[in-house]
Amino acid sequence: MSEHITLITGSKEEKYTSLLPQIKALIDGESDVVANLANVSAVLKSAFDFFWVGFYLVKEDQLVLGPFQGTVACTRIAYGRGVCGTAWKEEKPVLVPDVMEFPGHIACSSLSKSEIVIPLIKEGKVWGVLDIDSDLLNDFDETDMKYLSLISTYL
Ligand code: SME
Question: Fewest CB atoms within 10 Å of the CB: 20, 72, 77, 121?
Answer without folding.
Answer: 72
